[in-house]
Amino acid sequence: MPGTVVDAPGAGALSGHQRTVDWVEHPDHPAVELIDQTALPDVERLLRLETVEAVVDAIQRLAVRGAPAIGVAGGLGVALAVRTVPDPADLDAAILALRNARPTAVNLARAVDRVAGVVAAGADAALAEALAIRDEEIASSDSMAAYGIDLIGALCGPAPRLLTHCNTGGLATVTGGTALGVVFALHRAGRLGGVVASETRPLLQGARLTTWELARAGVPFRLAVDGAGPYLIARGEIDAVIIGADRICANGDVVNKIGSYAHALGAARAGVPFVVVAPESTVDPATATGADVEIEDRSDAEVVGFGAVRSAPAGVVTANPAFDVTPADLVTAVVTDRRVVRFAAGETWDDVPLGPLRS
Ligand code: MRU
User: Hey, where's the site called Transition state stabilizer on this chain (predicted)?
Assistant: First the structure.
């Protein structure tokens, strides 16, 4: 495993650890440090990444994951490149490797480009820009939670029962979260009627990570297989679906973890709100529709089993798109850190000006 384990692994080892991904400064060894999400929920450990190759590897194998978190990791990775790539002629290739580590979430390319844009001003400027992205994502989480609880209250009443998919908590951002941040805020306010976490095949971000975060926060929850979501909605057990996004296109199409579209169809059929929570850093007006987004296809190995346990016959051919596209007309509202957009009412990004950050 590239990267060094820096925290004694074990249950509870991360208690009190606040940030999913961060910069650590040692005079000789600047590094990107992150919670190893491949090891959760059983092993809690931090990885210290001292090379760009290690950061790229961590992003590709989902040791760090979630659109805002990989953006922050990519930005910090550029700052690390400026400090550690010995030959300046190799810097562009290092930055490109970070930018291309995963294709679908717009946050990664956007953060890498932003930090790369100040590299000419020196290592300190690059690090300052990367840390600014980190801090903006932290502030965004608070603001999305504030906008989100108001919207969910307006749509669903006093004690909403929610269904969420994948992991959209602090692990997917830096602290707080997007959709799961709204769930946490409702719980803290005593206004959460219940939450179902969808397990999120094949890498089980819901079963492994969302449950870990909910349990740590003391939020009661149920875990369901992905296919149960639309039926639980039809059976009247869910008042709203609330998910994050990896990219939201100009027309409001939402690209998110595979399985999101099925929940959206189930919600539409039952007349239940389908709410997307994502920071402005995930909004991509330069991409017209979901059909224009490169959807990452991942390996056969993820589908034929989990870890060392194989569940399909050897040699089967798989289809493994990591994300899907929920068309804008199935989305009741998008909550960002600066506005609430209801595409169902015919609004677009241009119709809704940016509001203030809230906390
Ligand atoms: O493949 P992942 O785990 O990086 O996918 C993450 C998701 O799809 C999340 O729902 C999305 O990034 C929003 S999280 C803030």
Answer: 166
CA atoms within 13 A on the CB side of 18: 4
178 lines ligand 1 (CB under 6 A): yes
pLDDT in tens, the chain (359 residues): 678 888 656 777 787 778 999 999 987 789 999 999 999 999 999 999 999 999 999 999 999 999 999 999 999 999 999 999 989 999 999 999 999 999 999 999 999 999 999 999 999 999 999 999 999 999 999 999 999 999 999 999 999 999 999 999 999 999 999 999 999 999 999 999 999 999 999 999 999 999 999 999 999 999 999 999 999 999 999 999 999 999 999 999 999 999 999 999 999 999 999 999 999 999 999 999 999 999 999 999 999 999 999 999 999 999 999 999 999 999 999 999 999 999 766 778 988 999 999 98
User: Residues with Cβ < 8 Å from 142, sequence gap 6 or more?
Assistant: 176, 181, 357, 358, 359
Find out whether 66 is annotated in a ligand binding site: yes
Residue with the nearest Cα to atom 8 of ligand 1?
Answer: 257
Could you give the maximum distance between any two Cα atoms of the chain, in Å?
A: 61
Best substitution site from 166, 255, 261 to test ligand 1's pocket, by max atoms within 8 Å of Cβ? 166
CB contact set of 95 (below 8 Å; sequence gap of 6+): 78, 81, 112, 116, 119
Residues 39, 10: contact at Cβ < 8 Å? Answer: no
Does the annotation place 37 within a ligand binding site?
no
Which amino acid would we find at residue 358? R
Cβ atoms within 10 Å of 199's Cβ, excluding its own: 23
The residue annotated as part of the active site, out of 36, 246, 284, 337, is 246
| Ligand 1 geometric centre to CA of 246 (Å) | 6
Ligand 1 neighbour 66 (Cβ under 6 A) = yes
Q: Which residue has the tokens 């509202």?
A: 333
Please tell me the distance between residue 256's alpha carbon and the centre of ligand 1 in angstroms: 6
